[in-house]
Amino acid sequence: MEKMISLTDSIYNIVNKYDEVIKIMEILGFEGMTNKTTINTVGRIMTLEKGAKFKNIDVKIIKDEFEKHGFIVKE
Length: 75
Known about the structure:
The chain has about 80 residues and is mainly α. About 50% of the residues lie in helices and about 10% in strands. The mean pLDDT is about 95.
């Protein structure tokens, strides 16, 4: 089964579908968004795309890191 995510999906939905996303987010610098409480609250409205803007992380870096871990990333 292919692991597919979208940069516009909520972090909550992505994490609930793929547990390993938390580790990838930590690698990328999303430390504040990786605890369960934050994921269950802010993560419902926060997307990877919004998080990238908030943390000033290039979306290409996010896409490359997820692809390195076997994900297909839709923009």
